[in-house]
Amino acid sequence: MSEGNGSTPGGRATIRISGLTKSFGDQTVVNIDKLVLGAKPVEGLIGPNGAGKTTLMRLIMRSTHADTGAVVLEDGSSEVMLSKLAPHRIASLGVVKTNQVTQDFAGLTIWDSLLLAAAQRRDERPHRIYRERHVVETYGEEIQGYLDVFEFSEPGGFAHSAGEKKLLDLIRCLLLEPKILLLDEPTAGLSEEVTTQVIKMLRTKVAEGMSVIIVEHDLDVIWGFSDIVHFMAEGDVILEGDPDYIRAHSTVVEKYLGSGHV
Amino acid sequence: MFEASGVWCGYDDIDVIKGLDFSVGEEVFAILGANGAGKTTLLSAIAGLLPLTAGRIRFGGQTISGIAPWRIAALGIGLVPQERGVFPDLTVMDNLRVGGLVAKGARGDRIDEIMELFPALADLRNQRAGTLSGGETKMVAAGRALMQDAKLLLMDEPTAGLSPLYVENFFDRIREIHETKQVAIIITEQNATKALEVADRAMVLSLGEAMTIVDAEDLTTDQLRKGYKI
Amino acid sequence: MSAVWDYLFGSPAFLIFGTYTLMMIVGLGILLHLQLGVTGIGNFGVAGFWGAGLYTFGIMQVTYDVGFWLALLAATAAGGVLGLITGWVIADLDDDGVLAATLAVATIVLLAIESEKDITGGRVGLGTIDFPFDIGDRTDLAWLAILFGVTGVLLWYARRVHRSPYGRLLIATGTNEPLARSLRKPVKRTKVGVMALTSAGMGALGGLYGPIVHFLFPTQLTVAITVSVITALVLGGQQRPLGAFVGAVLTVGLFDIAIKLYVPLPKDLLEHAFPVTKQIIFGALLIFVLLFRPLGILGGMRRERHVKGLSRV
């Protein structure tokens, strides 16, 4: 895996987490003292059910709010406290997440959805009613590029299947040109062929400088794709290391299978 | 008594369960697998909450795939879901009574039996189910399913997110329910060790496919690791 | 020929007043279309935003003797500010909350007008307001032409919005807020913005209605106007710019203008049974449309057509 070509002067942007906690009722779901995400190009986040992976991602994106703690985006020399920002501001800063559960805009076609993702704030002002041409000219080629790679049954119409919606979700995120892309089960439900295409596309983006943090049930994807794996259990990251190290570690086996199987 | 053959199902057009064949007798049958293996989906399909895209499920000599969930419940299949297994605004007693509505026969005796099985519930009988702790909620959900006079209980990760002390206790109860009430039990678990202590046989599920179906004591760590991809 | 002319335009005053109303419903309907059909904001307080404009215009003209343009500007601003505040309040509410809150806004406006007698004249009324110009017999007609023009501009704008990145942002906001947020779209600001903008339009229409009635009464801005606008829009097609026009022609146009003018109903029937029957027919029609064509006569948006045209926008 190549290290990015250094689009940011101080290396990759990282997410620094400290003292982050989140409880639902009397149950603590996330309790992380210190964690740095994004230092390596591709980082896997794994753990048994209820480890808190999805909640951690939601906390970073502020789609749910933490009880305590801070999430800081460090990018070159600048530091931004993500845990104080609105979700759309976090996305503007280049921290973007795909959706685990299929999400789509009911009224928008595939092209609509992708132009929406690509369009900037200045394109979307109420008085700019002749701005469509500019948006299509600026982003059309890039969008067409994605549509050439990923096959949709009706590219001029709506995304029909859950698989197509999942792909659309990923392309939308890529169009935002994220610095750090959080993937929540990106290949669940996709065929092997499409999964391979997705991973290939992600590798290209990673080579261009994007960082990936990936949660995935199919651990083979994690072992094959990650540079480093964070292992979560009971709300905390308890092990970090390269895939082989994590895979062979007795704690990982124990947390997944129970103590009798180490 | 229970038989699934060539079962496929999923959500939208995504296949989660991909061609399962297995049968369950008068036993405790564990379905083991990592997140996303399809455990919850499979139990929902058995309970009739999710249609099959292919295959057939038979129970007590009758095909149950394709019939309404409440009829499946009346035939004696009780589902204890992982979440939202109780009516939060009803009391513990009323939750149990709701379970009894689909079954024939005297309900009073059965409530006493359930209180014996889960003594903690006796003190909480008039409390609203929504105010209970996670462990107590699981007991109510299991009790409600038993009130249906179930012959087959489907328990979806009954101990997920609960304290270790409770987990120990609950697995003891599972064995007790099976032996004293002659109820067959299908239990899904990610944590294999505990489930294998109470199960007679086990199936390892990996991304919707059965990797192995063997006697619980014969299941090796290697087989599990292969199934979990670790 | 002149017989036909007389038959069609024999009661010009009635016809013109009916068409004023029709144009108001269409104009408000186009603005509500942007709120409800495009952005998914169920505004049940149309009468309030419109009424705020109408009374601001009246107070400016009558009490402060302000000129037409300044009064119209004030009416627009009144609608806009009210929309801004309302938008800010409802941005985080669910659909039911939005309906209740907007209805409450309209009620507050109505109650304020009824109770602040010193400023608004209360139930006694406020007047008189005259047309900003006087060209004799043709003044009414000229005003109607202006209303046609204003409605036309609103229609043109709404159609352009559908073909612009702004419209896409509104649709995205209306259909999936969390997803829009995750694509760095400022959802709350977008909703507040569209409410302010369209409510300003409603305020302006209110101002333009002032000279038509000459005298303002609180009874002119009851929930009835809101119901007429919603009925027209939902019937015609809430997601289409022309929806309000189609719906308004079929309701107000057919029943309040055509039948009253051209069908010789006995006076007694016209005054007593007709209004009730009309409401029953509207209600039945609405249920029928919602059952069999939930997006109205014109149907839903046709975005795939827009995609086909992208190469030549």
Topology:
The complex is a heterotrimer of chains A (262), B (230) and C (313).
Chain A: E1 14-24, E2 27-37, E3 42-46, H1 53-61, E4 68-75, E5 78-81, H2 87-92, E6 95-97, H3 110-118, H4 132-149, H5 162-175, E7 180-184, H6 192-207, E8 211-215, H7 219-225, E9 228-233, E10 236-241, H8 243-248, H9 250-257
Parallel strand pairs in A: 3-8, 3-9, 6-7, 7-8
Antiparallel strand pairs in A: 1-2, 1-4, 4-5, 9-10
Helix pairs in contact in A: 3-4, 3-5
Chain B: E1 2-11, E2 14-24, E3 28-32, H1 39-46, E4 54-59, E5 62-63, H2 69-74, E6 77-80, H3 92-100, H4 107-117, H5 119-123, H6 134-147, E7 152-156, H7 164-181, E8 184-189, H8 192-198, E9 201-206, E10 209-215, H9 221-228
Parallel strand pairs in B: 3-8, 3-9, 6-7, 7-8
Antiparallel strand pairs in B: 1-2, 1-4, 4-5, 9-10
Chain C: H1 2-9, H2 12-38, H3 46-62, H4 68-90, H5 95-115, H6 117-120, E1 126-127, H7 139-162, H8 165-175, H9 177-182, H10 187-213, E2 215-216, H11 223-236, H12 243-262, H13 267-271, H14 273-292, H15 303-308
Antiparallel strand pairs in C: 1-2
Helix pairs in contact in C: 2-7, 2-10, 2-11, 2-12, 3-4, 3-5, 3-10, 4-10, 11-12
